[in-house]
Design brief:
Two copies of one chain form a homodimer. Helices cover 44% and strands 14% of the residues of chain A. Chain A is an alpha/beta fold. In chain A, α3 links the parallel β4 and β5. The longest helix of chain A has 31 residues, at 162-192. The first copy, chain A, is elongated, with a radius of gyration of 22 Å. Chains A and B meet through α5, α6, α7, α8 and α9 of A and α5, α6, α7, α8 and α9 of B.
């Protein structure tokens, strides 16, 4: 069983960019990046050292056949279509999606999932070192190869089956997407009163740091937690006729029920 | 107008502890800490250098009359009662509450608000340096004194009136208390499936960091943002009969409406 050395990346978005950077930095060979749009590949390559630039492929039928592993990093809703078009039935292929099962690869010989659990932005490709990578594969040998690759890129690599990964992705929607929505509510509330939203930056960061040291339930503070009806009613008054009243009421009630 | 040099702290909780530490570290004299419970003062003093320990006062009638400023850091629901009992009608007194107006000091000569916008924990009193301090006072002279004190303790000091502070506090409930609640939902969802919640730590931290660089609306990601009905329906299916379905549905709908 030869370890993975030569890698192809299918896709040129945020995940593809962070992965490509990590792959090159850790001494693997990034032989090729595929995207239908050449300008997206060019954008990705800006984050790579000049002496490690991959082949740029825009026709999926022309994919290099010599890679040890093909990592498909495309949007969830494009994943099935892209996979179907891959001329790689006998190659090791993985996807990077949290919410899509491994069985999307049915018909392939060796496949799996290589899911980096993080929110990526193209402008600022973060280091994978502290990003948990969740691995699944259709055979123990393949799983071992992917675990090895994972350990080279990240300090935290775990094996999760498709159902566990779905659960984790659901939890991430609450912890990340929904929290971010609440930040946007806070921004709307402050800027409507000409208050600088950035005053809340340190508080937001500390709230996220706190639960790295203690369970979120133990870290809970605020009017709902202390059943402070007076403040809650005053705040509901401030939110009269606001589109944010409903979510305030619901989460307040849920925190109160937590005891 | 003599600057504030000698300070008394009324209260011995998390805010009192962080403030006491900053006051002492910045060369001010912490002459006294009041709490009805001596053990709470003793706990606070553990965070202070041995040569800077304050007088410990448990009878509010015995408060030292020689401080330049008295900072009342007690729980919101105890604030009115404590202030009424203060034998300090001619002294400069402030409170540290985000949600309580300055008029709670009616009857005093010089008063104001000194509100550090942060979530404090006793175990780990954080530095005030990066904590925004929001100032309000009943006269310009007093405001100037409090702004000066603020600038010694923090890099970010702003003047906010009571109404603005209420708005900011409401926004903080969304950004901090409610986000933390969502972290606790994520913890429940993962641990119920024997998945290590700490896998989400880096994601939570990065989500909080992202909005320090771009507006939350621009940072929004996830199934609701991309109107990915397939994933949303799958996740609602996972949440069938779960107490978390309602908040999932509501916030998903609100993000979709954001466009």
């Amino acid at each position: 069983m030869t370890p993975i050395k030569r890698i192809s990346i299918i896709g040129a978005g945020n995940v593809a960019t962070s992965l490509s950077k990590a792959i090159v930095n850790k001494g693997f060979t990034l032989i090729e990046v595929f995207s239908q749009k050449k300008e997206n590949i060019a954008q990705l390559c800006k984050h790579l050292p000049k002496n490690c630039l991959p082949k740029m492929t825009t026709d999926i039928k022309q994919l290099d056949q010599t890679a040890d592993c093909y990592i498909v990093c495309v949007k969830d809703d494009a994943l099935a279509t892209v996979i179907e078009a891959l001329p790689l039935k006998n190659k090791l292929v993985v996807h990077t999606s949290g919410s899509i099962g491994m069985d999307v690869f049915n018909g392939f010989a060796r496949y799996g999932v290589f899911y980096p659990l993080q929110t990526f932005s193209k402008e600022n490709p973060i280091s994978l070192k502290e990003v948990p990578i969740c691995i699944e594969a259709n055979q123990p040998k393949t799983e071992k190869l992917l675990m090895e690759l994972g350990h080279h890129l990240s300090e935290k690599v775990v094996q999760l089956n498709s159902q566990q990964r779905e659960t984790l992705h659901l939890a991430a929607v609450f912890a990340c997407n929904f929290s971010n929505y609440l930040y946007s509510v806070a921004e709307e509330i402050t800027t409507a009163q000409h208050i600088d939203f950035s005053l809340l930056h340190p508080l937001i960061l500390e709230t996220a740091k706190k639960i790295q040291l203690q369970p979120p339930k133990a870290a809970q503070t605020g009017p709902a937690k202390r059943h402070d009806k007076k403040t809650i009613n005053k705040q509901l008054q401030l939110l009269k006729n606001s589109p944010h009243a409903e979510v305030y009421q619901l989460i307040t009630q849920l925190i109160e029920q937590q005891g």
